[in-house]
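Lecture notes, continued. The same structure-token format from the folding unit now serves as the input rather than the output. Read the line below as a description of shape only.
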């Protein structure tokens, strides 16, 4: 919380400093996150399919 002794002009300031990320950079970051999630889910699916195949044989 901002102390009331600060001038009113500074009370609304918060967050990161410096230039904002470009839309392209944000999109690339999101794409990378989705690719990692997709790979994780594929691995999990393969594991589940293997378990199901083993259970079918019992």
């Amino acid at each position: 919380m901002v102390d009331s002794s600060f001038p009113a002009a500074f009370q609304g300031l918060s967050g990161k400093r410096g230039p904002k990320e470009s839309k392209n950079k944000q999109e690339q970051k999101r794409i990378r996150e989705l690719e990692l999630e997709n790979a994780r889910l594929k691995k999990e699916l393969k594991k589940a399919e293997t378990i199901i195949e083993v259970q079918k044989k019992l």
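Point for the exam: The mean pLDDT is 84.
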